[in-house]
Amino acid sequence: MRRLENKVAIVTGGGRGLGRIFCLAMADEGAKIVTADILEKESSETAQEIKRKGGSAVSLKVDVTSEKETGAMAEETIKAFGRIDILVNNAALYFGIGRRPFHEISSAEWDRLMAVNLKGPFLCAKAIFPYMKKQNKGKIINLSSETAFTGSKGFIHYVTSKGGIISFTRVLAAELGPYGICVNSIAPGFTDTEASRTVTDDITKYNVSSTPLGRLQQPQDLVGALLFLASDESDFVTGQALVIDGGRYMH
Q1: Terminal-to-terminal C-alpha distance of the chain
Q2: How distant is the alpha carbon of residue 48 from its chain centre?
Q3: Strands 86-89 and 138-143, sheet pairing
Q4: Is 33 helix (H, G, I), strand (E, B) or coil?
Q5: How far apart are CA 191 and CA 203, in angstroms?
Q6: pTM of whole model > 0.90?
Q7: CA distance 161 to 148
Q8: What is the pLDDT of residue 23?
Q9: H helices of the chain, where?
Q10: Active site residues
């Protein structure tokens, strides 16, 4: 039996990048997928690919900063599949943000990034909680970043938001544990994605000398951890931040 057979998973930012990889991987393990993304075309393409492979998926256009839209996301998922087992809070502002000193970042950019990267996961968790509570079980997986542990000059707003995700994960895990809901975070290192290619001049020149495994991280390197945290195998794991970066940061 596949690890996520008949589970229902919502993936925010499921239209491209890591979100798309996560959708496809969970679908391959038997999950019914809701791709929730503000990028309507890309979200639909992910859902269509899952269907072509014999899986079940629906696509929803969702702005995660909107309480109305995240609430509708949960309602539409219930209408389509009858339950919500997994929420992957993957949507984030990262694509093309550019590296700049903190004093050159506008307050408007700061606010927008915090709205997507921190308020978004809060609203999505709030929207799906009543359904997971009723089931007395669920998995929430939040995407953080290795940079929350190591810092990264020029991205203070992004790094701050990802540090916030770790604290958000811990508190939510403490609050939702009594309802059988596990809340964990994955903290990837610098990964070869479409978004990463917009924030560096030449990704092929990324310095891997401090990576014990000696290569640039690929999206597939995160799939095993995602599937573990989404599956019943991790039913006694909660409040954790799993750093996946080839060993650059050890703790």
Answers
A1: 34
A2: 20
A3: parallel
A4: strand
A5: 9
A6: yes
A7: 8
A8: 98
A9: 17-28, 40-52, 67-81, 107-114, 120-135, 147-150, 156-176, 223-230
A10: 158
